[in-house]
Design a protein that fits this description.
InterPro entries: MFS, MFS_dom, MFS_trans_sf, Tet-R_TetA/multi-R_MdtG-like, YfmO-like. This protein has 423 residues and is mainly α. The chain is 79% helix and 0% strand. It has a single domain, classed as Growth Hormone, Chain: A (Up-down Bundle), CATH 1.20.1250.20. It starts with a helix and ends with a helix.
């Protein structure tokens, strides 16, 4: 297929309503989406048990937050290489290796006797997560019916559902022991592994090998570079809200695993709802970049509000839920922009963008607890709001590079695509 031929349908499909097609997917897509739900549970799974791990393993809050950092750093760095790996061994094998690593390291985390061991095993979990997540996004986009937008909405719905269920299961199992959520996650991942084995056919035709340098070279593309840089700072806000807020709630009387699990279950449900229904509604009426420019400042305001009410349990919970609503829109629209902003292979674009994005998130949890210790519980939320505003500034300064992310392909680019022939 020529690039011109592939570009035009993508732009048309991006504006199509997903309602009619999102539920009518091949079984392989549902298998990957189910495994995505379980994989994304790993992000929020530890939220309700952070105070318990701190207490039982005699760790400081900053040491405990390293459970997020080790996981996200390894995930981010490994993301740059996942497209190279999957293009040589195939998407199915890459997904299965990723799932197997998650099962192994989740079990090891649950059997750990020190916070240092949990931090190390979470790093291994992050490697499996990187192999799975980056490949899963490209697999769903490539195999789903209804176009890119429908596929991304399905992926983001899996993300939202996983993030919602993760804290709930973490809270329920964590009320028995902080080890329970790790064993539960390993068991569910084993089910996801079996679903991929049975339902996802072997890659056909054989994948075209991708250069090891491809994701790094991809970031030199102005559009992808702008979006990745913005996502780096956006993810700081995301993970301050997710990873630091449990510690802010503990002194306010909301420190039990089940209570924190319910709070962040509400956050994740809010994220899933806006990912699936609100984001498509907005992008049908506004350009994607306009949606980002409108919603990112609202997230910054929500984080400022969290700082101002950091002494109120009810106020913080409301800010967490509102944050989930905003994050659902932003996750979906940013991912759509990345998938449409260039003519790069989707696996390459996903690897490059996701690598930068997760590295941004890795900085936030320990930095937040250090700021809280030095300047008080409101400081991390103010810092997160500032980071989100940096993301807004990057998008505004780079808006000239993002026409294609809005489904606009100029005539020169279209002519070059026609002249390039088969991709």
């Amino acid at each position: 297929m020529s690039r011109a031929a592939s570009t035009a349908p993508q732009s048309q499909q991006s504006t199509r309503s997903p309602a009619a097609s999102i539920l009518h997917q091949p079984t392989a897509v549902w298998a990957v989406a189910f495994a995505c739900v379980i994989a994304f549970m790993g992000i929020g799974l530890v939220d309700p048990i952070l105070p318990a791990i701190t207490r039982d393993l005699e760790a400081t809050p900053t040491e405990t937050e390293m459970l997020f950092t080790s996981y996200l750093v390894v995930t981010g760095v490994a993301m740059f290489f996942t497209s190279w790996i999957s293009s040589r061994i195939g998407a199915k094998r890459t997904l299965l290796i990723g799932l197997a690593l998650i099962v192994a390291f989740a079990l090891a985390s649950g059997m750990s006797q020190s916070v240092e061991a949990v931090i190390g095993f979470r790093a291994g979990w992050g490697l499996g997560n990187a192999l799975f997540i980056s490949t899963a996004l490209a697999t769903i986009v490539g195999a789903a019916s209804g176009g890119t937008s429908s596929a991304i909405i399905l992926y983001e719905a899996a993300l939202g559902l996983g993030i919602a269920i993760g804290p709930l299961i973490g809270g329920l199992l964590g009320s028995l022991s902080w080890r329970g959520p790790f064993f539960g996650s390993a068991s569910l991942m084993a089910v996801g592994f079996a679903a991929i084995v049975v339902m996802l056919k072997t890659d056909a035709p054989a994948p075209v090998p991708i250069r090891l340098s491809a994701p790094f070279r991809a970031l030199a593309r102005p559009a992808l570079g702008v979006l990745a840089a913005a996502a780096f700072f956006y993810n700081i806000g995301f993970f301050v809200l997710l990873a630091y807020t449990p510690f802010a709630l503990v002194p306010l009387g909301l420190g039990s695993a089940i209570t924190l699990g319910l709070v962040f279950f509400g956050w994740g449900v809010s994220l899933a709802v806006t990912s699936v229904w609100v984001a498509p509604l907005l992008t049908r009426r506004m350009k994607r970049t306009h949606v980002l420019a409108a919603v990112l400042p609202l997230l910054a305001l929500d984080l400022v509000a969290a700082a101002l009410v950091s002494g109120s349990a009810a106020g913080l919970v409301v800010c967490v839920i509102v944050g989930g609503l905003l994050l659902g829109v932003l996750n979906t629209v940013l991912t759509e922009c990345v998938m449409e902003a260039t003519d790069l292979m989707r696996a390459v674009a996903s690897s490059a963008y996701s690598g930068v994005r997760f590295l941004g998130g890795a900085l936030a949890p320990p930095a937040a607890t250090l700021l809280a210790a030095a300047f008080g519980p409101a400081a991390p939320f103010f810092a997160a709001a500032a980071a989100v505003l940096v993301a807004v500034a990057i998008l505004l300064l780079g808006r000239a590079q993002l026409h294609r992310a809005n489904g606009v392909v100029d005539r020169l680019e279209e002519a070059e695509a026609i002249g390039a022939g088969d991709s």
